[in-house]
Specification:
This protein is 33% helix and 11% strand. With 218 residues, the chain is α/β, with parallel strands linked by helices. Strands 3-2-5-6 form a 4-stranded parallel sheet. It has a two-stranded antiparallel ribbon with strand order 1-4. α7 (164-167) links the parallel β5 (158-162) and β6 (179-183). The longest helix is centred in the N-terminal third of the chain and has 16 residues, at 18-33.
Length: 218
């Protein structure tokens, strides 16, 4: 597995661990028998697009979108030309209310990833039409490792933890230089219970600037 940045060295001992070889065996079979998202080439895009050294914000999603052609390896993001799903629309609404970012038709958030926003799902794959179908197969252990490595960073990282699965990762983040911002998930089922009005985007930039880091152009 080559990510072509500093994650390769950081994770070099992870790929051969039994839980991950077992997960890859399961995925090999599931991709053959079913439609699984994202496409294999995109599964690790979050790590490919945002190196360890560049990471200054982390958004943790649940599992990928399970609809046709939506998921491309970045949590909450969809491919260019794909209609933004309801959770992403709610993110855009909060962005507008918080920082005045105009709501656009594009749901591709790659430009965030390229600015140092690691857009990591808790589980990196899903079977079409079956949300959480790859839960408890091993991905959670892998993404825990990612968070534990980021916890060691000597520069501040802002973690945006939306919803209970993401917030469970909070216990791994023990380094006091990092900041954790929590809210309910932006899903239509919960957004009105505290995601709207959380102002996480402006708060993130305030934290980054206070620490001498470039703010994110949301």
């Amino acid at each position: 597995m080559k990510l072509n940045n500093d994650w390769d060295e950081i994770l070099k001992d992870e790929w051969e661990k039994p839980y991950l070889t077992g997960l890859f065996a399961f995925l090999h079979e599931d991709y053959d028998k079913h439609t699984v998202y994202p496409p294999k080439r995109d599964v690790f895009n979050a790590l490919k697009y945002t190196s360890f050294s560049d990471t200054k914000v982390v958004i943790i999603g649940q599992d990928p979108y399970h609809g046709f052609n939506q998921a491309h390896g970045l949590c909450f993001s969809v491919r260019e030309g794909v209609k933004p799903p309801p959770s992403l629309n709610n993110i855009f609404k909060e962005l507008y209310d918080d920082v005045g970012r105009p709501v656009t038709q594009s749901g591709d958030l790659t430009h965030w990833a390229k600015q140092g926003v690691l857009m990591l799902n808790n589980v990196l794959t899903v079977r079409e039409g079956q949300p959480q179908s790859h839960k408890d197969k091993g991905w959670e252990v892998f993404t825990d490792r990612i968070i534990s490595e980021l916890n060691k960073k000597k520069t501040p990282v802002v973690f945006l933890l939306w919803g209970s699965p993401a917030q469970k990762k909070a216990q791994i983040i023990t380094n006091p230089i990092h900041k954790k911002l929590t809210a309910v998930h932006p899903s239509p089922l919960s957004a009105y219970r505290g995601f709207f009005g959380c102002k996480h985007f402006s708060k993130t930039n305030e934290i980054l600037e206070a620490n001498g880091l470039e703010p994110i152009n949301w």
